[in-house]
């Protein structure tokens, strides 16, 4: 049995035990809602949205290997990734306004078409075609994480008049099943790409019928809806910027997000080449290629592990800023481990630690944003947060494009260690601010409080 599959089984068992602890020992349970009309509406949304997420996850494990399989150099692959990140920068700030004006259903259908075309274009070995595919993919990803949730929130409140607190029950279910589907997607991708030996393009082609199913369900079963607010784009942007500039908590959260998530994007780019010197020995007599799909699934289990630990800490009444500090500390350790060694297993273990850090980081950040960012400005603020994330990631990848390919990854991880160290210091500062906030301090004041 491959050591990667052993890791997968061990982490799966740990997560099962933690889930049992959450349900049996700590008494963790999600809202139990017995309204039949709501459950039917919720099921329709989740079936469609989770299929869309599954199609997205299928493409994760083999993207870098596909480009490498086509014979492109690391510098050329870097440009392809930069195109995706740059598209997200340009499109992220306009997506909410676009969704409100054009219509959520139309843009959900646009997502399925753009992503399907992007997947089909992966068949081509033309560099120009692959760049266009990355641009289409970047636009589609922005729509995936905006249009679907906006459609659901409007239908939930404005059409069906369900209680607003029930929205959380739906998003909790989506989060739970998203982790399961991400894990399953890695295994399915491995099955088609490696076990059946259909090559790294197979998961992308497999995503097309899944996306077609999403499109059919949206077209037939989802009504159109639009945003109620039709404000000017400039006004919407400046509201978000004003909230960030005048509130210390929001500003520090944005800095932490920019630093951590830009490093996460670098991880997304580098984990495949770092772990793949093309082949590695299984024993003295046998060799096998790195099972990227299984490793990807194990990464997802690490994220679920971190999320489960966060839930346990929540139930123990631990403030969210402290798991955030732990997450960033784990991130520093993992990236430093990767920067200071060139061996396969230590690097793999370091990546596992980083994914656990992600599992702690995302729910902690989500909780803190819900506390300090006003609901009326949350979407604008979150979209502004994404801009520096992608800019930093693009700058770092351009740096990788310019330096020697022999030690480029090592240098990039050294820079990432510094970025995460700065994020860790910011998280300690945030913990102090939040503690003052809990005692009645107003973080929207701009004067010095030290």
Structure description:
This protein has helices spanning 3-25, 36-58, 63-69, 74-92, 95-102, 104-121, 127-144, 147-159, 166-195, 202-221, 233-246, 248-275, 292-315, 321-339, 344-372, 378-402, 408-438; strands at 280-281, 287-288. A hairpin with a 5-residue loop joins strand 1 (280-281) and strand 2 (287-288). The chain is built from 17 helices and two strands. It is an all-alpha fold and 450 residues long. Helix 11 (233-246) crosses helix 16. It has a two-stranded antiparallel sheet.
Q: What's a concise summary of this model?
A:
The protein is an all-alpha fold and 450 residues long. It has helices at 3-25, 36-58, 63-69, 74-92, 95-102, 104-121, 127-144, 147-159, 166-195, 202-221, 233-246, 248-275, 292-315, 321-339, 344-372, 378-402, 408-438; strands at 280-281, 287-288. The protein is built from 17 helices and 2 strands.
Q: Could you tell me how far the N terminus lies from the C terminus, measured between alpha carbons in angstroms? A: 57 Å
Strand order of the largest sheet: 1-2
Mean pLDDT: 88
The tally of helices reads: 17
Computed over alpha carbons, the radius of gyration is 22 Å
Poorly predicted runs of 5 or more residues = 278-286, 445-450
Order of helices and strands: HHHHHHHHHHHHEEHHHHH
Which percent bin holds the helix content? over 70%
Number of strands: 2
Instruction: Name the beta content range.
Output: under 5%
Shape: globular
